[in-house]
Specification:
By secondary structure, the protein is of the alpha/beta class. The protein has 2 domains: 194 residues, NAD(P)-binding Rossmann-like Domain (Rossmann fold), CATH 3.40.50; 102 residues, UDP-galactose 4-epimerase, domain 1. Helix content is 45%, strand content 17%. The chain contains 12 helices and 14 strands. It has a 7-stranded parallel β-sheet, sandwiched between helices. α2 links the parallel β2 and β3. α5 runs parallel beside α6 and α7 crosses α12. The protein binds serine (SER). The site of serine (SER) has 11 residues, from loops.
Length: 326
Amino acid sequence: MKRLLITGATGQIGSELTIALRRAYGEANVIAAGHRRQPDADLVQSGPYCTIDVRDADCLQEAVRRYRIDTIFHLASVLSAVAEQKPQLAWEINMGGLHKVLEAARQFGCAVFFPSSIGVFGPGTPLENTPQVTVQRPNTIYGITKLAGELLCDYYHHRFGVDIRGLRLPGLISYKTPPGGGTTDYAVEIFYGALTEGRYCCFLKGNTRLDMMYMPDAIRAVMVLMEAGGKNLIHRNAYNVTAMSFTPEELAAQIRRSIPDFTMDYDVDPVRQAIADSWPRYMDDSTARAEWGWEPHFDIVATTREMLAHLAVKLARQKEDHNVTP
Ligand code: SER
């Protein structure tokens, strides 16, 4: 990996992965691509930035050619809850975008990272200790695009020899950029609520157990997988990876250890609850551990401690900036 392109660079994963990759591979060698005209200042100040709509094959190929890209991290995607509201758009971006990225990779000889998801599982899947290889019959458009994406990645690897690697990521918890409309977003919003108002209204039932991961673990997983020797990667396009598994009640209890007066109530969203109920409670990620050495560093205790500390600093800074703005 020498010249890297990141689609969806302004999103929850992209905004942190871009900075980590720039640190590792050199700022000028990591090209961030987003669809927003106004990306975060640190993204544009720390290296090249361009605007790409992943549905536009010409624009994508032009960027790959112009920047002499050899590896594409394809993060641009519509998340599960928004996808249920806009299924046509989700198909166009999640499937159409991936197909165009894979075509560019085939034509220009690039490697690809593809973020799959716990959303590829659904009714019929064993939801406890969900195996690497099992029933996959998702009934959300998000899950369908991610599962079809896994299969398309397999096809491009076997048929054209494209080096594609992917992870089935769980809910990601981070303080830098909020997620853009997923089912697991409560596990980020709860920290904002706890620090700003001392309360949070949760859209999932209190006993809904889902897999989760703190962002630094996810960034490390992506980077280690992409640097791993290719010949051990039998399940290369879609590794189950997880770091912890908890319910909203358990996360609230953990937050109360630092903010004793924190309260949580519920206004359950039936759409997101149905999605969550169809996803694994906890996945078996032993295949990722065996094939490329996956190992998480952050559990619920460490994640809660880090989130409260970092988010408190960020919110205080935002408040200061707001106060000095005329
Ligand atoms: N966090 C994602 C979502 O909730 C799952 O991949 O949509």
